[in-house]
Amino acid sequence: RFNEENREREMPWFGQELFLQSVEKGPLSSPEYVAALETGRREARSGGIDAALTRDRLDAIVAPTGGPAWTIDLVNGDHFGGGSSTHAAVAGYPNVTVPAGAVYGLPIGVSFFAGPFREGELIAIAYAFEQATRHRRSPGFLERLG
To answer: How far, in Å, CA of 88 to CA of 31, rounded?
Structure first.
């Protein structure tokens, strides 16, 4: 309601249509949602992350967090090209993201994820990566891309 009442100030370029559509889907207790949640978790866990960790005898999985940050496009919207955080999020598993460098001055990250209750190991792995690469830079504002 606040966003709609303050639309000109809070959302001058984009609305919240996707948010409103999700509210119309119904409660998180609906049978359809509960079934989809259970299927997603099962596939992301035993059919995905757990299977890969076991099959390949891995401590963790490493993947690009996503592409470089994108510039704001007031005509077409975001240009998100995908990322690796969905798998761990759907499974309910830990995921640690750390800086991995930059592309044309825009930061990129790498994510480490594993099975349940592996947070300590993931933090150790991510910390070792950070110390070895030294990719972390203090945030700043770019007036133009490099």
So the answer is: 23
Two tokens, residue 121? 């190991």
What b/e string do you get for 22-41 counting C-beta neighbours within 10 Å, with b at 16 or more?
A: eeeeeeeeeeeeeeeeeebb
pTM: 0.78
Answer whether 80's CB lies under 8 Å from 66's CB: yes
Q: Which of 71, 136, 84, 80 is nearest to 112 (CA)?
A: 84
The first and second tokens of residue 61, run together, are 């999985």
Task: Kindly report, residue by residue over 104-114, the tens digit of the pLDDT.
Answer: 878 899 999 99
Interval 24-78: pLDDT, tens: 888 999 999 999 999 999 999 999 999 999 999 999 999 999 888 777 788 877 7
Q: How far apart are CA 143 and CA 27, in angstroms?
A: 43
The span from the CA of 124 to the CA of 45, in Å, is 22
CA 14 to CA 115: how far, in whole Å?
A: 37
116, 92 contact by CB (below 8 A): yes
